[in-house]
């Protein structure tokens, strides 16, 4: 019996230490002596067994449970933010994983969406994107015009660092993660290299916590290996819904970018899958609803006719569209098409 009590005491101490390191959800651990197994889990219960005292009752609480609301980067999708306990942690390492090479575009687009959210919520500091020459040859660089149009990011706000080797990319990421002059740091890695181990990710996570800035690890076509990142999101492209018009969905059209986001690992959430649409006008995510087994597009919070991008006044609402058959020659005041010859644009001579 004495040996059994010592073993239980040792196991209890180990469980408490592991829960303290991992920061698990609030959990009532079994006390080694005196506390019954069927202890009530409701802290507001009126009846509590008398043999349970604060000395033999241990409650492990997650460290981020008392974090302020601004400690999380909210995506705007209520389902995903709720599942993650408030959103992605700002001062931490987060992993965004693409299972196949064809998912590189979806991973990069989701990362750029996070950049837009970071710059919109905080100071508009530069963002550093680090990668090896291999990953940039395979996936390419973001298009500058698309950065401003789809994500509201100025091209000069996104800095790129191309490293010849993975060792150089890791060193650059560790040095950049400690800088408070950057809004965020992105490290894009292809495959499952040996140098990207648990020790390397622990250093990145510690630097992010010390600087209070997010560090994102983008994994392209790699195996889900153990890392120090509290959250791992698995990304893939989702079919875009048709564009919404006044008359309804436009058949055969391509609407907003859509992503399938799966929670691969989280200390606070259970595994789940969400389909998000990126709204370039609002620069926020919207969760696509599911009705009767079919994916429905997210609600459009803005009018169908979007506001003018070059002026302050919104574009006027469209009226009724009428179709007229082309009868006779064009009117006298009509302008010739650019494809017409120059001789056809001269006035005709009489006689």
Provide a concise account of the structure shown.
The chain has helices at residues 2-22, 78-83, 104-121, 133-139, 144-151, 166-177, 198-211, and strands at 27-29, 58-60, 72-73, 88-89, 93-98, 127-132, 158-163, 184-190, 215-220, 231-237, 244-245, 248-249, 258-266, 273-279, 284-287, 289-291, 294-296. It has 351 residues and is an alpha/beta fold.
| Number of separate helices | 7
Q: Helix-strand pattern, N to C?
A: HEEEHEEHEHHEHEHEEEEEEEEE
What is the approximate shape?
A: globular
Largest sheet: 9 strands, mixed
- Unreliably modeled segments: 24-65, 301-311
Chain-averaged pLDDT? 76
* Percent of residues in β-strands: 15-25%
- Tell me the strand order in the biggest sheet: 7-6-8-9-5-10-13-14-15
Distance between the termini: 124 Å
- Give the helix proportion (percent range): 10-25%
**SSE class:** alpha/beta
SS elements, strand count: 17
- From the alpha carbons, calculate the radius of gyration and give it in angstroms: 28 Å
Question: What would you note in describing this structure?
Answer:
By secondary structure, the protein is α/β, with parallel strands linked by helices. Helix content is 25%, strand content 22%. The chain has a nine-stranded mixed beta sheet with strand order 7-6-8-9-5-10-13-14-15, with helices on both faces. A two-stranded antiparallel ribbon has the order 1-2. A hairpin with a 2-residue loop joins β16 (289-291) and β17 (294-296). α6 (166-177) packs parallel to α7. The longest helix has 21 residues, at 2-22. Residues 24-65 and 301-311 have low confidence and may be disordered.
């Amino acid at each position: 019996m004495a040996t059994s009590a010592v073993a239980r005491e040792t196991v209890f101490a180990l469980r408490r230490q592991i829960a303290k390191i991992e920061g698990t959800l609030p959990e009532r651990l079994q006390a080694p002596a005196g506390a019954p197994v069927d202890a009530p889990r409701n802290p507001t219960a009126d009846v509590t067994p008398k043999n349970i005292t604060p000395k033999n009752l241990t409650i492990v609480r997650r460290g981020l449970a008392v974090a302020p609301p601004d400690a999380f980067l909210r995506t705007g999708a209520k389902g995903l933010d709720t599942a993650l306990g408030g959103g992605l942690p700002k001062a931490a390492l987060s992993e965004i994983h693409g299972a196949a090479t064809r998912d590189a575009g979806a991973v990069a687009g989701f990362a750029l969406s996070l950049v837009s959210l970071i710059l919109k919520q905080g100071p508009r500091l530069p963002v550093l994107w680090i990668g090896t020459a291999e990953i940039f040859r395979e996936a390419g660089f973001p298009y500058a015009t698309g950065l401003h149009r789809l994500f509201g990011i100025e091209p000069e706000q996104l800095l790129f660092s191309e490293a010849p080797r993975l060792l150089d990319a890791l060193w650059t990421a560790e040095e950049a993660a400690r800088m408070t002059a950057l809004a965020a740091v992105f490290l894009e890695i292809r495959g499952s290299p040996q140098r990207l181990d648990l020790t390397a990710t622990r250093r990145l996570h510690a630097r992010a916590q010390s600087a209070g800035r997010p560090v994102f690890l983008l994994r392209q076509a790699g195996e889900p290996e153990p890392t120090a990142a509290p959250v791992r999101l698995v990304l893939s492209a989702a079919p875009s819904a048709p564009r919404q018009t006044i008359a309804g969905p436009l058949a055969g059209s391509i609407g907003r970018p859509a992503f399938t986001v799966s929670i691969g690992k989280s200390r606070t959430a259970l595994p789940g899958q969400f389909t998000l649409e990126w709204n370039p006008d609002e620069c926020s995510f919207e969760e696509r609803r599911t009705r009767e087994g079919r994916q429905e597009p997210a609600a459009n919070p803005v009018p169908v006719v979007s506001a003018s991008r070059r002026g302050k006044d919104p574009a006027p609402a469209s009226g009724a569209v009428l179709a007229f058959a082309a009868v006779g020659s064009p009117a006298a005041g009509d302008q010739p098409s650019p494809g017409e010859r120059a001789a056809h644009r001269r006035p005709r001579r009489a006689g």
